[in-house]
Amino acid sequence: MITLTPFPFTQLISYLICFILFFILYEQILYIKKKRFIPGPTLVFPFFGNAISLVRNPTKFWAHQIKLAKSTNQGISANYISGKFVVFIRDTELSHKVFANVRPDAFLFVGFPFGKKLFGERNIIYMMGQEHKNLRRRIAPNFTPNALSTYITRQQIITLKHLKTWVELSQQQGPNPMPLRNLARDLNLDMSETVFLGPYLDPKARERFEHDYFLFNEAFTSFPFDFPGTVFQKGRLAVFRLEKTLATCTEMSKVRMEKGEEPSCLIDYWVQDTLREIQEAKLAGEKSLPPFSSNDEIGSYLFDFFFAAQDATVSSMLWAVTMLDAHPEVVAKVREEVTGIWSAESNTLITADQLRDMSYTQAVAREVGALVFPSTLESSFQGFIEPDRFDPDRFSKDRQEDQVYKRNFLAFGAGSHQCVGQRYALNQLVLFIAMFTMLVDFKREKTIDCDELAYVPTICPKDDCMVLLSKRCARYPSFLQLDQFTK
């Protein structure tokens, strides 16, 4: 008879502890081997690395990485986040090499340490190679001059709607300043819903969409604990619902575009070109749909557009107000230029041609930039004359620093992952600056550390831009299309 001796529990615990200690040692050795002489933490916290400090205080985290990168001629620093060895780059040429070599065997474009888990696998950020090129080709018709002209109309109408609300709220506050960050976020989300989806979101659907997007935003700056009831899981599930809503909007757009109606929003331009390719595939005898043409696929990539258009633009609007308040001479020049081209009392929309004629206002918008990722911010202004000084004239015809140092300006990325919607983003910022300065008088409440950088997740003023607003114009423009576009 054979007697089975139970495996001692204490011995099992001993083996488990040994395994964990071995893994921790292996992790530290691997980190040190990769780090070599790059400035960075000597040792890292097991498993999580510095993910906790990144989430808890991103401002301090990135400031430290910048300090380390500046301490060496290489212009780089190292860290370890959730099992990933991370290199922070502030050197412009090295940044170009990274952007040019985004592929499985070289560099991966992360964007956000826990992004793939939150966004899902089907996300333009994580695509590369020919598949990524094909998708960008499909996206291109969304940003033709004709499409951008359509968006300009809606951008102005939504901007006016929110500026009026801002002034009313400020008047209700009396002498107390109010923070602009959440108001700018609401403006921008309304803008994206209107420009991207047009008539396909009714009021109830908008309310649900905005609630889900809020949950996603909360998850973006939370700890990545994917358990029931956690902020992160709520955000992940919200992304799933948002993509489903966008897929439904795609289906509705296909119905309209198949009838031959004119595009009225971004999704219509996307669907119009998609239907053309589907028809060509049918005529060629192909039985399967072309890539990126199903409702679910388009819905998922539309969500990427929403994400790309949100925080970066909100950040830019806040910095525009911040810099304009600090430079009244710039405000005066913007108002002088815009007054010669457009009047609020004219009750007419600013046209695409008029927008192009606002060369100084365009320069102000470009000087503000789209401050998104800390490393590209550090790279973007190298070589420029006095890069830390707010100086829109650097983009003038006489100086043309944007051409001389064009390679160094990385605010919109570079290479195959350069922002495809940068013209749309700049148009929105120029329109905002023009209308804000013409329709509103503003004063920012200054505190000692109000201009320090806060990462939420893009770069914003630490005080959320506290301002007092009042109506400047004799009367607001009366755009007849307002009700039509904002129902």
From TrEMBL:
Xref: PROSITE patterns: CYTOCHROME_P450
GO biological process: sterol metabolic process
Membrane topology value: Single-pass membrane protein
Cellular compartment(s): Membrane
InterPro entries registered for this protein in UniProt: Cyt_P450 (IPR001128), Cyt_P450_CS (IPR017972), Cyt_P450_E_grp-I (IPR002401), Cyt_P450_sf (IPR036396)
A Pfam cross-reference name: p450
Cofactor: heme
GO molecular function list: C-22 sterol desaturase (NADPH) activity; heme binding; iron ion binding; monooxygenase activity
GO cellular component, one term: membrane
Organism: Lupinus albus (White lupine)
Name used for this protein in its record: C-22 sterol desaturase
